[in-house]
């Protein structure tokens, strides 16, 4: 009997525990589905939003706390015209709701014209709209990489500049970034130094470069406005003019050597051609000399040449040979040393 009573008591306790747990889970589920605390916070903050809207937000996978906090911030900052539906649409499009509202509040306090539509467009374009507003209030200073340029006198100069930029809110969508600004500034520095007649003039007045670069309107089509360009440092590099002259002289020397080699080769070829022609003429002479005995024999047969004429010709040849031997210098033979036994 006692055991039966204990069993009934334990069953009753277990049932009560299950009921309590179910109640707690139910309350937690209700509070999760129906964010009463968040709704109450919105009401006491002056934001008019219904429980049904909060429930539907959760069903649309939109975090209600994020939307409510953004609306509370906008309401407290005095921003009007920002609706929960607009914030939900921006969140579902992949935007950053908090950053957009922060940017709108900062722009309102700084008297910068920025609409909700423009802010969401900037955010969806991949730019940090809050940072852009801060950059409009507090300009950003960026350093350019070393820019190498050559003046007209051939001296190389290496310049470094600091560019002060302010964000142009209206050009943030579709405007070029910092890389384009740096590239244009570098191009302007190269053009300014290159147009200088002397590198000393650049070293004496580096602010001349800044003025010339600013006059070119390098910030056109970019998301920034160039406030100032300051030359931080200028170093002297190589004498490019002298190097180019040396290279040109070396090239001219190589060209002259090539032309001389060409003329030498042509002369050698011409000499070989003349030697070949001389050998050809000698062959013709030998061939002609070989025809002389035949012609003399033919003359003997026909009676056009007598025996005395032949002897006179031989005497003339002998006299000619003797005169040539007398007129030519004697040939010296080298002394031969006697061999030792």
Sequence-ordered SSE layout with sheet pairings:
Layout: H1 2-33, H2 36-44, H3 51-59, H4 64-76, H5 84-92, H6 97-109, H7 116-124, H8 129-137, E1 140-143, E2 147-150, E3 155-167, H9 178-194, H10 199-204, H11 207-215, E4 224-239, H12 240-302, H13 307-327
Helix pairs in contact: 4-6, 6-7, 6-8, 9-11
Structural description of this entry:
With 341 residues, this protein is α+β, with helices and mostly antiparallel strands. Among the domains are: 15-137, no CATH class; 140-239, Band 7 domain (Tetrahydropterin Synthase, Chain A), CATH 3.30.479.30. It is 64% helix and 11% strand. It has 13 helices and four strands. A hairpin with a 4-residue loop joins strand 2 and strand 3 (155-167). It is elongated and about 180 Å long. The chain starts with a helix and ends in a 14-residue tail after the last helix.
Low-pLDDT residue intervals, each spanning 5 or more residues = none
- Give me the count of strands: 4
Quote the beta fraction: 5-15%
Summarize the helix and strand pattern as letters: HHHHHHHHEEEHHHEHH
